[in-house]
Design goal:
Length: 141
């Protein structure tokens, strides 16, 4: 595999940037993971965690905004609840956003399984520490 096919040397990712000490463990694990897979796979994984609106805008840009009409069956009460929330014109957007979010979560599950397969189970203490550092983290009451 050529050097252009890999994510790169983990030491090159932030060589000139100061990283807070609390992020050291998380950054090290991420660098190891990024360095162990092909670059195109890293890009695909990053795309899976972008907000749905970014994915939709990028998809529309790349694919000319094409959409496909599909038929979906759902319980009548659920369809009524969506229609009441969205009005006549927002039903498809609402369902599309929900499906995109589920696909994003499925991809995150796939990434999690892959990383655990490659590097072993997540260290729960490290996960909790990383969560506390997340900008919107709220401690459970």
């Amino acid at each position: 595999m050529g050097s252009n096919d890999r994510a790169g040397n983990p030491d090159d990712l932030h060589s000139q940037r100061d990283v807070p000490a609390e992020l050291g463990t998380l950054e090290r694990v991420l660098r190891e993971a990024l360095a162990s897979v092909p670059r195109d796979q890293v890009i695909k994984c990053i795309a899976t965690v972008l907000p749905a609106s970014v994915v939709v805008e990028e998809s529309a840009r790349l694919h000319g905004g094409k959409v496909r009409k599909v038929s979906v069956s759902m319980p009548e009460e659920l369809a009524e609840a969506v229609r009441a929330r969205t009005g006549a014109g927002g039903f498809s957007r609402y369902v599309t956003d929900a499906v995109q979010e589920q696909v994003r979560l499925d991809r995150l599950d796939d990434l999690s399984a892959y990383l655990q397969e490659q590097f072993g189970p997540f260290d729960e203490k490290g996960v909790q520490e990383a969560m506390r550092l997340w900008p919107d983290y709220e401690e459970d009451a």
